[in-house]
Records
---
Amino acid sequence: MNDIILTNLETVPGRTIAEHYGLVSGSTVRAKHVGRDIAASLKNIVGGELRGYTELLKESREEAVRRMVEQATALGANAVVNIRFSTSSITQGAAELYAYGTAVRVE
């Protein structure tokens, strides 16, 4: 992702924060797929991983992080520290995945 350092730590080990650009974020809202719902209903009976939902969440995290990185890069940052993720229900069958952190330039 554009060679930008991403970490959930407050600093980058071995590096010094030279500039602070502030909060950056990215989000995506995804709706459930009818086919995935049917498969999930069957898995609820027999148990096991809901692979369709696992893939949906993976794609959502990647999209939210990509958007956060684009925002940080536009500010001139070369790292985003203290990254966190949050989810919220938007409506029946749709949820937002939100990624946020602090854009910085490290040396």
Note: The longest strand covers residues 17-31.
---
Amino acid sequence: MTRQPISRIDNARLRGRDGLYTIGVESGRIVSVDPQPTAGSPPSADRVDAAGGLVLPSFIDLHLHLDLAYSLEIVPENKSGTLLEAIALYSEAKKTFTPDSVRERAVRAIRDEISFGTGAIRNHVDVGSTAGLRLCEGVLAAREQMKDFIDIEVVVFPQDGVIRDHGAVDRMREAMRMGCDIIGGIAHYERTPEDSRRQIELLFDLAEEFNARIDCHIDETDSPLSRCVEYLAAETIRRGWQGRVTASHVCALSSYEPVHAAKVIGLIAEAGIHVVTNPGVNLHLQGRFDTYPKRRGLTRVRELMAAGVNVSAGQDCIKDPFYPFGTGQMLEVAHLLVHADHLSLPHQVEAAMDCITVNPSRSMQRTDYGTEPGCRADLVVLPVDSVHEAIRCRPRPTAVIKNGHRLTS
């Protein structure tokens, strides 16, 4: 992969604006956004001609498992298609993974994401007892190898639980010392509700120790009895961690009866918790115990948005025992989200695009994300003229720009 510095993008169509624009770039930043001059500029190596295409800030994949990517061929078949069988199969297979084998698969997935216009990833790396820190070593090596081409946050993820997996807290602490950024969790995977509550308390203890954000897999089940996100929200308020916590999946919320769901959504909003839904993976994994009608699997996206909750969408998995599909194309993720939660009206389609752009940037606490002067020149150029067409057609980008450099494979 190569990097070519650019000085401007011509004939760019911008979201929410009429006409065409020229975007000036200098030292990795956008320095100007002006109406396109009538007289065109001669082509040059340091200029990108958007040719009337839509220019967006680079996509952000806020939920990914790079250590899992492309492991489908080396993990036994998930015959039930359930989350629990996938965890069991992967728990055994990962004993044989080496840091270098993880790095190789992770780099492959990162390159795929970049090719589709992704400029930042939040990755959850397994530090369970059967993984140790080998998978973490591989992912951190992949991040270092690709640091000039993409930004990656790494979440320490206790895949095997915290209370039920001896030594989990110590491994999570060591992974943070190795260079990971965010405390992860999987509260609903504990054996009892009491253990789930205790896990959440321990996550906040670690977050306070490292002054870190939290991103917890939570209530990834159809069961209406799984209430972990309530504990997470309440603890967020008690610890004063508002705005620094993300709840990933939150599938059980869609199984709650309406009155209780409304209460929980209000609590999530009060706590300032960010929510990530993973439409492809949860459509695939959830509802496996249903006959008909089958539940759709993902959380209550529209209701969360209506309550002011910051909702993002992630790829989650790429060709692994949890999900045999996935390409790293965030437009495909938005496309699935539109279908899964009936986001068909024009403003809802725009909201789906927010789920892979501005909303995850807020969860990442980015203040220089966008297409305005002063923002980082992390951009994607699409050969379409609108957000609707981008999600409908899901085209490959005509240009991917990172820190003011055009990337080519």
Note: The domain at 60-363 is CATH 3.20.20.140 (TIM Barrel).
